[in-house]
Amino acid sequence: MRYDIAIIGGGPAGYTAAERAAAGGLKTVLFEKKAIGGVCLNEGCIPTKTLLYSAKLWDTMKGAAKYGIAVPDAAAFDMGKIIDRKDKVVKKLTGGVKMTVGSYGVAIVEREAVIAGEENGMFRIVSGGETYEATYLLVCTGSDTVVPPIPGLSDTDYWTSKEALESKELPQSLVIIGGGVIGMEFASFFNSMGVKVSVVEMMPDILGAMDKETSGMLRAEYLKRGVNFYLNTKVTAVSQEGVTVEKDGKASLIEAGRVLVSVGRKANLDKAGLDKLDIELLRNGVKVDEHMQTSHPRVYACGDITGRSMLAHTAIRESEVAVNHILGVEDMMNYDCIPGVVYTNPEVAGVGKTEEELKAAGTGYHIQKLPMAYSGRFVAENELGNGLCKLVLDDDERIIGCHLLGNPASEMVVVAGIAVQHGYTVEEFQKSVFPHPTVGEIFHETLFA
């Protein structure tokens, strides 16, 4: 029961770290109390995107006439089968991840693990009545949904993202508390499926720190589709009748068949026993350095528990950095070029700096942008669609940010992320050859704009 490294948490950070550590020759044990894949694979990224793809197909069918395709009036969707397919996809992927991790020789313990302390240079972890010892410890215990203390909320049958992903019945109306990424993705899904959707957001606009121009365009698109937005608005109470909100000192009631709480997530700091090691915290997470090393030299933390960038792809990269540091491979974490994506229809994506943060810092910059309609492929596949490609450049003409609205922004942002990561200048990026016709050609057009 003695290992080189013990990993607590089997989400993207944990299972990636387990694979990399075992491949690097470390005897590895991975603890996961619920299901391999963590929130992302079981209750977040994958099931959400599965539902959103069904909604996208339904949107396409409803608009098929614009493309010369006649769809029978009897066309319909089956919510039960949509949820069943989501469950099937999740089961397939979680099984695949577990099999892959096991193929590296990782010991998988599917029980809760708690740090018991440190003795003779070894960490002691207790799980299922057994004690495990390890030289290194990687904590990837993730995060939980934040449920704010709104009067009346606990007395109603409200949803978090977990319940919203499981329901086979659609409410007539839905009030989403929180207009961030998760809130907007659910707004997109339920709006496509015919539910009357309202989004309540305390901030002046949706999507938090993302580029305000593209997020504003997305909001305008969903306004046209019938989604109601209550910005700069505070929720003061929830009841069986609906959600009571306040704006500019005036109270009003938004009727709701169902309420979905989506105001963010918080790091799981108090369940793994980190207090036994006196690990230093920073704001709402575990404090780590550029190698994902905590205040203890043999304890690392990755993923949502750091409270820094609660994204699955961030967690994966953090785990690679942590394992590389343990193995003596030179590497460090860079948060400057992590893409963010909103899988609405159309998609929104961004990487690097935004205009808003550059203005706040007093940093010089300029913008080159074009509507997506400058791409022939985009016009062919998005009847009457517009969209935007926006590049943020510094005073040396280097690409320091990119923000996109339009499908498939989630795939295209990878290219921009590479440009940001390697500090491409406009001239260097202009020399990249994009296949024709692709939506990605919009980068080339924008670079010459």
Task: Give a verbal description of the structure.
The chain is α/β, with parallel strands linked by helices. It has helices at 12-23, 38-43, 45-62, 79-103, 161-164, 181-192, 212-224, 312-327, 355-361, 376-381, 409-421, 426-430, 441-447; strands at residues 2-8, 28-31, 107-109, 114-119, 122-127, 130-139, 143-145, 173-177, 196-200, 228-230, 234-239, 242-247, 250-255, 258-261, 265-267, 281-282, 285-286, 299-301, 340-342, 348-352, 366-371, 388-393, 399-405. Strands 1, 2, 3, 4, 5, 6 and 18 form a seven-stranded mixed beta sheet that branches. Strands 19-20-23-22-21 form a five-stranded antiparallel beta sheet, with helices on both faces. Strands 10-9-8-14 form a four-stranded parallel beta sheet, with helices on one face. Strand 5 (122-127) and strand 6 form a beta hairpin. Helix 1 (12-23) runs parallel beside helix 4 (79-103), helix 1 runs parallel beside helix 8 (312-327) and helix 3 (45-62) runs antiparallel to helix 4 (79-103). The radius of gyration is 23 Å and the shape is globular. The mean pLDDT is 96.
